[in-house]
Amino acid sequence: MGSENRFYTGAEFSLDAKWLIDPKHLYVGPKIGEGAHAKVYEGKYRSHNVAVKVVQRGENPEEAGKREARFAREVEMLSRVQHKNLAKFIGACKEPVMVIVTELLPGGTLRRYLLDRRPRCLDLREVICFALDIARAMECLHCHGIIHRDLKPENLILTADHKTVKLADFGLAREESVTEMMTAETGTYRWMAPELYSTVTLRRGEKKHYNHKVDVYSFAIVFWELIHNKLPFEGMSNLQAAYAAAFKNSRPCVKNLQEDLALILTSCWKEDPNDRPNFTQIIRMLAHYLSTISPMEPVIPPCIFPSENRVFPPESPGTSALMPPRDNSAKTPSTQMMMEQQQHKRFFFCFSQCY
């Protein structure tokens, strides 16, 4: 399989040394998220609080190869796009397991933020600011020729002050030049553009193909959810929602919205992808609409503790086996070094056993 700083996607390529994580300095705490093929943990890397995504290897050689290729694609894309509305990439390693390390965003997912406020709606100015954050992140990806393909509230993370949204999880992202059909195991139908999974866009003998406009459709569904704080296509299963969108051209209701807001939504989820605006145009429309809204009432912010000062308490779930014990007694430099080496060994043992 090559050395630990090599990744494979059919064609071999190297990870730049500046992005290579040294597992000896990586500590893992409680689990904060889980997907179909990966788990995300709160952790520490050197002096930074981080999110640690651990990609599970496949149960057979074919599945393992697919997951390694997806892991390699995600690492390569994260390493070349930096933006204030994208979760900051810190690094990755392939051994002892496939790990992607990004900045820790303590604000939680947009999904959790919305659920915590139901049935209340968000302030409209907050909605537009969040939508602008998402649109700017997507504009950056598209400028680099990357399609995210899985834009939904679960992949949008808030900063500690709940003022900024950042896009995370590039597990399904693809280069626009190598698009292919999505399968039932990838993406989430409720937010996916119909052309990703249906034959409704095949006309005049066209080949099955999609472009970056699939992310524009997903953005519209997320934006509608931000406005209403309701699940889109409520009362339907994911498959029922997909069927209604693809074969009945159904969309969430916009009849009670202001004309400008309704226009943004309806233009973004048009059936023909070529009729949808790009994110540069969307940002312009959102910024114009924001300028017409009166400012929010000033709010006294809650006490926020800087993430740099956060530590894992010994009793935190999952940390007792993975984190070295504390000892406040004085230590000489040589003793400290020996203890750190022992802690690293203990960490590797637990890390390997867990995965």
Automatic annotation (TrEMBL):
CDD domains: STKc_MAP3K-like. It catalyses: L-seryl-[protein] + ATP = O-phospho-L-seryl-[protein] + ADP + H(+); L-threonyl-[protein] + ATP = O-phospho-L-threonyl-[protein] + ADP + H(+). It comes from the Eukaryota. ATP binds at K53. Belongs to the protein kinase superfamily. The keyword Glycoprotein does not apply. Keywords: ATP-binding, Kinase, Nucleotide-binding, Serine/threonine-protein kinase, Transferase. Residues 26-290 form the Protein kinase domain. This is Protein kinase domain-containing protein. It comes from Trapa incisa. The keyword ATP-binding applies. Pfam families: PK_Tyr_Ser-Thr. GO terms for molecular function: ATP binding; protein serine/threonine kinase activity. InterPro entries: Kinase-like_dom_sf, Prot_kinase_dom, Protein_kinase_ATP_BS, Ser-Thr/Tyr_kinase_cat_dom, Ser/Thr_kinase_AS, Ser/Thr_Kinases-Pseudokinases.
